[in-house]
Structure formats: C-alpha cells, structure tokens
Hints:
The chain is α/β, with parallel strands linked by helices. The chain contains nine helices and 14 strands.
Amino acid sequence: MNGVLAVLEYRGESRGGWNRMSWEALAAGQELARNLGEPLWASAAGNDISEAGPDLAAKPISGAHLVTHKLLQAYTPDGYVAAFEQLVRKLDPRFVVFPHTYQVRDFAPRLAARFGQTLIADVVAIRFEAGSPVFVRQLLQGRLNADYAHSGAGACFVSVQAGAFRADGLSETACISGTAPVPVEEFVPRLDESQIRSRPGERFREAAHTVDLSAANVIVSVGRGIKEQVNLPIVEELAHALGAELAAARPICDNGWLPMERQVGSSGQTVSPKVYIAVGISGAIQHLVGMKGSKAVIAINKDENAPIFEVADYGVVGDLFEVTPALTAAVRKTKGA
Length: 337
Ligand SMILES: Cc1cc2nc3c(=O)[nH]c(=O)nc-3n(C[C@H](O)[C@H](O)[C@H](O)COP(=O)(O)OP(=O)(O)OC[C@H]3O[C@@H](n4cnc5c(N)ncnc54)[C@H](O)[C@@H]3O)c2cc1C
C-alpha cells in the first residue's frame, strides 16, 4: 500500500473539459504525497478521453491513469464505482483524494464502502501530526472544526471542499516521480452492461442558464446593501457585462429575491473564482467561509470599516448605486459593447 491517488473529473472536451476543482484536489493530493514522501497519481474516467492525457502529463505527478470504457461515456454511479474499484485495487494507494463535486458526492461514498471505509467528505484543511495526516471538516454550518484521522488498515478516502486548496498552489516539482514526461497509461476496467443499473438523464446544471457557482471564473455577489429586489438589475447588468455568475449573501436568498442555489457561505455554496466582486456585502464570517478561496476579491461598500475589506484585494468605499453602474459602463466600454 503506497502513494496517493487523485480521482479527477473530466467531462470530455465538448462538455466543458476538466472540472476546475480537479486541480484543487490534485493540490491536496500533492500536499499529502509530499509530506508522506510517496508518489502521487492522477486519474480520470470516460470513453476515449485520450485528449485529457497531455493535461495530466504536464502536471507534477508520478503518473496518470485514464480509465476508459464505452460504458463510462456518460457518468453513472455504478460504472464509476466498478471502474475505480478496479483501479484502486490495482494501485493500492494509501489515500484516494477527490474534489467534492456533485458527482463525487454521488459515487465516492459507495466506492469507499467497497473497501470497508467511509468517505471523509468536504475536507477544508490537512495538517500532519507525528507524520500522519489529520483532516479538518466543518460542522454545524462552519461554527466548529472537527479533526478526522484514518485508523486501521485500508485506503483512506477523502474529498476536498471547493476553494480549500489552491490549484495554483500545485508545486512545479514532482512528488516522487520518475523523469519527465509523466507517464499516462490507459486503464481499461472490466465492465458489462448488467452492472450499470441506472440510465443517465440530462446532466445536472449543465445548461448555460443554470447555476454551478463552484465552476465560475468570475462572480458578482450582492448583499443587503442593494436594499430592494427592484434594484437587482444594477448587479445583474455588471454580471452580464463581465460574463460572470450572479451570487448573493444569505439575506437576499432568504428574502426570495434570488434562488437559494445562488447563496454563498457556510449554509450556501463554497466558491473559488478568479474574481469575486462583493457588492453591498458586509463580510460576516458565515459569508467569508464560502468565498475566502477566491483569487481576487473586489469589495464595494459604503462603510469603510466593513469586514469585507479585510479580505478584499481591491476595495471601493462608496455608494453601490453610483459605483456599480459606473463599473458596468467601464467594462462595456473596454469590451467595445
Ligand atoms: C448559522 C448561520 C449560517 C449563515 N450562513 C450564511 C451564508 O451561507 N451566507 C451568508 O451570506 N450569510 C450567512 N449567514 C448570515 C450572516 O451572518 C450575515 O447576516 C449575512 O452574511 C449578512 O449579509 P449582508 O452582508 O448582505 O448584509 P449586512 O450584514 O446587512 O451588510 C450589508 C452591507 O451593505 C453595505 N451597504 C448598505 N448600503 C450600501 C450602499 N448604498 N452602497 C454600498 N454599500 C452599502 C453596508 O455598509 C453593509 O456592510 C448565516 C448566519 C448564521 C447564523
């Protein structure tokens, strides 16, 4: 039993390619592998996903496995559990790390159960005690942190929260590796149709008008400073001009002004976009835990002492009803729209 296997999410080039959280899981895997002094493998599943190979070959890992089979063309929990069970048995890793995506929530607990294990889900940090990893999870909507350590024999299965590990924190230096290029192998599991009991339907949140905040590169998020629902077009226009997703602090969703699925925070989604623009949001801790993984935070707030400015890379102290339309106009001008 040796090494760390990161199970990544690849949807095929025509359907969005890699789930961005994959690279965060790889960063978490790298943190584990480095501290343990063991190899790090990456893997992804699909049917004929050879185009994903070069992406993996460019990563600082020991090797990669493309789990390929025609029955993996579309995601099914039965197919993924059966396929990854075979890969895990072959590689016999000490740790299996996933991004905490919807898909992973669906199949990873069952995969772990095949090995007599539970999934340590939605991990926000890893620390090491006497050389062994301790996984940190949040409880009670972020009010408590709990430590989990793996005990006993068998692989340890862990999924990591969006934004908890930085994809750009992936070190360029390989863990324990051979020489470049990184070997990428095809792994063909034994699967037959009788094993796949479910028939895939439409992909959840695949359409452009639905919400997958965790995959958004730019988010414009609105808080109570907007005052009334009729004012929302001010932020919607900024989001539209930037090609951004619209999100909100909890009071906006509690009021029913935006759907709950757009809420960011400890009781909403956790996001890690390249740019997070907080408009009229105070920066309560329950909101911050959901967006602290953002690469750049821009805050617009009329109160210079608002806590959001403590995490902001750029801040505008001003009235959002003046600043936001001006920003939208500037973006449109830059884009020539
Ligand atoms: C168990 C629990 C879970 C929670 N989960 C979440 C969660 O998931 N997500 C979440 O967001 N919250 C959550 N909350 C609520 C959280 O504590 C805060 O109440 C909430 O985040 C505040 O939202 P807000 O920043 O929009 O509103 P406020 O705190 O009211 O802030 C409004 C801000 O707008 C500014 N403002 C007002 N007018 C203007 C103007 N004209 N121009 C510019 N700025 C202006 C004000 O200065 C102020 O800073 C949770 C609370 C609890 C107890």
